[in-house]
Amino acid sequence: NMNEIDHRYDNAICPVDYEQKGKILNDEINATIVRPLPFGAKLHAIIDACHSGNVLDLSFVCKMNRVLHMGGSYKFKNL
């Protein structure tokens, strides 16, 4: 889809059975998990994968610093 950071590629998760069942595209994850959420709902998603920043295909991203101490900072950035 055309809102990808690099307009040529989608992000995908490749589950163990992806050769039989296929990859799970970020557009599918967004349509299944994100879009059905009611206005004002919060979704906390932890994705343990390389380049997982846009696996939910969101129009914004939360950037957190990697300092391991209390009082770390974060900011939201529109894509």
Describe it for me?
The chain is α+β, with helices and mostly antiparallel strands. The protein has one domain. Helix content is about 15%, strand content about 20%. The protein has two helices and four strands. Strands 1-2 form a two-stranded antiparallel ribbon. Strands 3-4 form a two-stranded antiparallel ribbon. The chain starts with 11 loop residues before the first strand and ends with a strand. It comes from Trifolium medium. Belongs to the peptidase C14B family. One of its GO terms (molecular function) is cysteine-type endopeptidase activity. This is Metacaspase-3-like. One of its GO terms (biological process) is proteolysis.
Write a compact overview of the structure shown:
The chain has about 80 residues and is an alpha+beta fold. The protein has helices at about 20, 25-35, and strands at about 10-15, 25, 60-65, 75-79.
* Morphology: globular
One letter per element, helices H and strands E, the order comes to: EHEHEE
- SS-based class: alpha+beta
* Sheet of most strands: 2 strands, antiparallel
Low-pLDDT residue spans: none
Number of helices: 2
Average pLDDT number: 77
Gyration radius, rounded: 14 Å
- Please indicate the count of domains: 1
Number of strands: 4
Distance between the termini: 14 Å
Strand content: 15-25%
The percentage helix is: 10-25%
Q: For the largest beta sheet, what order do the strands appear in spatially?
A: 1-2
Family: Belongs to the peptidase C14B family.
GO molecular function: cysteine-type endopeptidase activity
Protein name: Metacaspase-3-like
GO cellular component, one term: cytoplasm
